[in-house]
Amino acid sequence: MKFQQATLKLKLGLVALGLALGLSQQSAWAAGTLSGTNIDNKATLSFSAGGAPQTPIESSPSGNSTPGTGNGTVTTFKVDNKVNLTVIESNGTFTAVVPGQPKAVTTFTVTNNGNTVQDFGISATNDSGTVFTQADTYNTSSCSAFVESGATADYQVAQDTAIFIDELAPDATKTVYAVCDMPATPTTTPNQAAVRMTATTNAGGTAGTQGAPLTASTGPNGTNTVEIVFADPSTTANSTGTDPGQIASDGQAFALDAYRLVPAVLNVTKTMATICDPVNGTSNPKNIPGGYVQYAITVANTGTVDTQLTQLLDVLPTGLSFDPKLISGTGSPAATACSASGTSLSTTGFGAVTGTGTGGGYTAPGVTGQATTNGATASGSNITINYATLAGSGLSGWNGTLAAGNYITVYFNVIIQ
């Protein structure tokens, strides 16, 4: 009966130890105990013989019958490498593009659901899947995959240059980008190119160096070695098509996104306002020789896709000359105010403003706070606006790209001859 009691105590002690170990590890890592961790365990048997308590005996992997503390040895095994990962499409919708657009970006996340620090190879490729209810109808010209550096949010050409995920810890997530060039040929809608982001589990352990792709272990389990087990699950296709269904236990994961052709819709408006004449000044001015007329050219993006503006050309007809000072025409006497001696609003002769909507940030004759410093020039009768280099105090944040729902207005004066 004494031996039965001792056995019962031993079993209860082992169960309690196992529960405590499991709970402590699971609370630290949702993915489980880290691979390579040694799980050490040693049992101690207390017993009596002939009614007298005996010296406890500790366990040993090969068996131990020598009583006393320290005569047993631990039973040890190493936790194996459980490989599991997910790739998720992050945009929640397609990416709108125009024909010939370079470096169009879609965003994904890669999560290490395993219990080991891993590298992950990434690749962006064309796919034929239906995504966001639209079938694939064309291919991108080329695609590359890059990892978010963390320096600046969203894809930055000069910063996000890594082509693999380096040393991703268990339960950690990285943002990755598919960066693709659009062909110039698809010009009708609806047209859509599906793209696939694939992550492949690579060996970790050396920062800055991409490890080799992992291979699942197939031999018997070793107690003192770390086997590799591919535990990534199969999935059922979702309603958006971004997950068309994963294959289980291949050490890879992927997701789909789409580039949908949405034509650029730009509205170009050129308005005129008579600023002054040398007789009436700014009081009901007329279009007489010596009078100043202001032209305002507004480009509004009324579509749904950002557009890169390049250049606008305007040739002044005979009878007009360019005003290099962009005078306001205000003041008196009228003959002086409405002349080359009038108050200048811009040393370049141009003003510009950008904002949301289709216009509204400009009112003739303009203000000094909208004077341009670069990108707008006049040579004889030729007016040239280079939007990529256009700069001025009224163009904060302008880089040549006119966002959907925005406008840009450039204005200048001409003199009636």
TrEMBL record:
Disordered: annotated span: 45-73
Signal in keyword set: yes
Keywords for this protein: Signal
Biased composition (Low complexity): 59-73
Signal peptide coordinates: 1-30
Official protein name in the record: DUF11 domain-containing protein
Organism name: Methylophilus medardicus
